[in-house]
Amino acid sequence: MTLLRVPIFHCLRFCLSIWMCGVCGGLIAESVLAQTRYAQSEFPESIDIQPLPSERILDIPIDVAPSPALPGTVPESIVISAFEVIGSTVFSESDLATITAPYLNRPLTPAELFEVRSAITQRYVDQGYVNSGAYIPPQTLTDGILQIQVLEGQLTDINVDIVGRLSPNYVRSRLALAGSTPLNSERLLDGLRLLQLDPLIQNITAELATGTEPGTSILDVEVTVADTFDVELRTDNNRSPSVGSWRRGIALTEGNLLGQGDRIELEYLNTSGSDEVKLDYTFPVNARNGTIGWQTSLSDSSVIEDPFTVLDIQSESQTYGVSFRQPLVQTPNEELALGLRLTHQRSKTDFLSDVIGESVGFPSPGADADGRTRLSALRFSQEWTQTGNREVLALFSEFSLGLDLLEATVNDNAPDSQFFAWRGQAQWVKLLAPETLLLLKGGLQLSGDDLLPLEEFGLGGQQTVRGYRQNVLLTDNGFSLSGEVRLPVFRAREINGLLQLAPFVDMGGGWNHNGTNPDPNVLVSTGVGLLWQQGDRLTARLDWGIPLVDIDKRTSSLQENGLYFSINYRLF
């Protein structure tokens, strides 16, 4: 009889793999793999409703429109059978015909001819074309047809005076778009308002002056650059208890690194069982606020939650991405933008090093024998935001197409890098009364394939369904809904502090494409939060969520007891 000899650690690995996949696979996926999920675009916790910039940023002189004199010798009266308006790109022939119709086929005095010309000029001025106008050029009247020439105004020079470190071309190129020919004061004012809303600019004022030629204007602009360097300290308990829920971090941000409006952010995050470094850089590439970007994230972690510490589960991941974002519509009240990102993520999870003296790849869904997964994806996003004085509505959509690039994971039956998924988000903020807000938000993910844990939809935690631990449910498809009212309870005006009470209701559910659905797969909670905001320096939040759907607790952490906190403090 032949005796088959198998190394003991292979048997141990096989037995532990079956035990973990069947008994605690959900916990491991949540604790180790979920933390390396691709950083999807998220809405901020709240959207501030800010008043729009005042029209006072633009000073327009009254006598900008040209007023050429009526030429030559004119008879005491003439009869005009038709007016031919030349040079108008703003108004159609039918628009101008409504102005000239009362002056046809009757004797007209020179003063009445001036009236026709002035009426056309006034139509331009009323529509914001402040340096456009009409005049009657020297001509010989033929068949009773009188030509009226329109001189549509233009902006010939933009003089930019900047206090601070910012390229004048950053301002000039954006105002050149807003001041395109024919010059319109409302369009120019919108361009100035957009710059006033730009975080790089603290203040902007402009004066429109008459140019040296008829129909020309010069724009003089004064800009004060904002302080673009920021250091922020952050702490919360929004990580999985398996790697330590208490997270500490520091973020360094420079919004104008090279003086071109380019932004760089370096962030370090730490828990008792994890470390993460993020680097984001964006550079503006056109005057319509299009940007290219580079994103990098490096992390490593270990499970520190009993009873799994004895397994010595270690994980490391790297995420790289390049992106392009282009607003198609951009006004002070509305923005519609498209984005394209190519991302690549690598993760490796192993265990048993302390048990058998050798690391073994962890058998997570889609991983190879060494516990590695590689995911490449092309992501196409659409964003729309509408802002008013009392409300903000924001919508986000992203299609993700998995690619077989850069040694991406490809499996026959298990989840891999070849997938297609859609993710959407919506948020509505309504100002009900002074310092009283209603916030409604929701998220949805739909997938036509089994997904790697890196791409799954997570539920549980302060950002989705409070009252449950972070990412207690991870599924291919899912939804989340949340409603919250923020009520002012205390105002400390001497330190610009505001305390708000925030009762909330959260709900979410998830299901898998082919695999077994979690039980339960719907979470519902209610609770109350306290928010403290002190100027733009300090923001603190404490939430207590009460789960309405029972789910097994794994530890006695603050998260499992429905308590969440977050504190952000800006040093600069």
UniProtKB/TrEMBL annotation:
One function term, GO molecular function aspect: protein transmembrane transporter activity
Gene3D superfamilies given in the database record: membrane protein fhac, membrane protein fhac: a member of the omp85/tpsb transporter family
Segments forming domain Polypeptide-transport-associated ShlB-type: 79-153
Swiss-Prot/TrEMBL GO biological process terms: protein secretion by the type V secretion system
Record's keyword annotation contains Protease: no
Haemolysin activator HlyB C-terminal domain ranges (all copies): 215-530
InterPro entries linked to this entry: Hemolysn_activator_HlyB_C, Polypept-transport_assoc_ShlB, TPS_OM_transporter
Keywords: Cell outer membrane, Membrane, Transmembrane, Transmembrane beta strand
Domain of life according to the entry: Bacteria
Entry GO terms, CC: type V protein secretion system complex
Name the UniProt record assigns to this protein: ShlB/FhaC/HecB family hemolysin secretion/activation protein
Native species: Adonisia turfae CCMR0082
